[in-house]
Design brief:
Elements: E1 2-10, H1 17-24, E2 31-38, H2 44-54, E3 59-64, H3 69-79, E4 82-87, E5 93-94, H4 98-107, E6 118-127, E7 134-136, E8 167-170, H5 171-176, H6 189-194, E9 203-215, H7 224-229, H8 231-244, H9 253-277, H10 280-296, H11 298-306, H12 308-312, H13 317-335
Parallel strand pairs: 1-2, 1-4, 2-3, 6-9
Antiparallel strand pairs: 4-8, 5-9, 6-7, 6-8
């Protein structure tokens, strides 16, 4: 068994796939690199096959019909042989100095009696055209140098949540948690990092800047205008976050609080984007989203509506919309997202 499987969901990634793979190769024989070619129409398949031939036993090319990012992640998980599992998007990469530290840490959790459910590390917003790269770290929220549970976690600031970039899960936990990512849908990374948390108990935080999250391509799914165009997919993910996990069914109050906060921020972003688009259709979709939450889980609905973001999102008229959009722009500058 490999120590770590790393899946690279790849669709028409010929221009940047090399960078991602080359950053992972220094992991050597302990690491399995799964290039999941998601029905690409460019040279991605050929590049994947070349890496497999050049690095047998380390790189595997997995070819499939196009099913979208989530389907590629699930295919990577199905093919993984590593004890732990990580997703690295094809336009991202890992840090050369932090990588060996992450592997050394995972080695310490390879024995059955020492295995953890999740390793957390920092990630960098590598935004094109900016000199200052914003780093998302967790040293104020998570204990260091020891395994810990949810009861030892501290306050997470708004925007400080663990994303796909910051987590490495135990592979079997991912298979056991019942996660199914929808096909042909963007933003499923939110489901990937959220659904398994209900099964996570033992964690370890390694305070290194491991993952470089590239932001800057015009067609990138996180670009604001692209998100508005794909808002129906974001809404699907938002609804699945509500329906797949009931935070109030979780006994641990610290875990429950974290998951409610995460759900709050995702729902707020969906609502802001729908408001910012300014169309009557999208304003109706915002109301429909909140109605869905109310019908699916009234207790979650009441909680989200009582909180500050929920109250702000209900401000009426053009003045209310202006306040919502203004608050979102401030958050963009503070937290560094698009």
């Amino acid at each position: 068994m490999k120590l770590l499987s790393i899946a690279i969901p790849s669709y028409n990634s010929q221009d940047y796939l090399h960078h991602a793979v080359e950053s992972l190769l220094p992991g050597g024989d302990e690491v399995e690199i799964l290039i999941v070619n998601d029905g690409s129409k460019d040279d991605t398949a050929r590049i994947a096959d070349e890496y497999e031939r050049k690095y047998p036993g380390v790189v595997r090319a997995v070819h499939k019909e196009n099913g979208g990012h989530g389907d590629a992640v699930m295919t990577g998980l199905q093919n993984a042989t590593g004890l732990y599992f990580k997703v690295v998007d094809s336009d991202d990469w890992v840090d050369a100095e932090a990588y060996p530290k992450v592997l050394e840490c995972l080695r310490g959790f390879a024995a059955p009696e020492k295995q953890i459910d999740m390793l957390v590390s920092n990630y960098i917003y590598d935004k094109a055209g900016t000199l200052h790269k914003h780093t998302m770290s967790y040293h104020h929220a998570l204990p260091q140098h020891r395994v810990f549970g949810w009861e030892e976690t501290r306050h997470f600031r708004k925007g400080q949540y663990m994303l796909m970039h910051s987590v490495i899960y135990r592979t079997q936990l991912l298979r056991d948690c019942g996660m199914q990512l929808p096909k042909h849908t963007f933003y499923v990374d939110e489901l990937y990092v959220y659904i398994p948390l209900k099964n996570v108990e033992k964690m370890y935080y390694l305070d290194v800047d491991f993952y470089h999250y590239f932001i800057g391509r015009e067609d990138q799914s996180v670009q604001e205008q692209v998100m508005i165009r794909r808002i129906d997919q974001a809404l699907l993910v938002n609804r699945l976050l509500v329906s797949e996990v009931d935070p109030y069914a979780i006994e641990d109050k610290h875990k429950r609080k974290y998951m409610l906060n995460y759900l709050e921020i995702v729902t707020a972003v969906s609502s802001v984007l729908l408001t910012k688009s300014g169309t009557e259709e999208n304003l109706r979709k915002k109301e429909a989203l909140w109605q869905y939450i109310k019908e699916q889980n009234p207790r979650v609905y009441d909680t989200l509506r009582r909180r500050l973001m929920g109250r702000l999102l209900r401000l009426p008229g053009k003045g209310g919309r202006a306040c919502i959009i203004g608050g979102y722009k401030v958050a963009q500058k503070i937290f560094g997202f698009n």
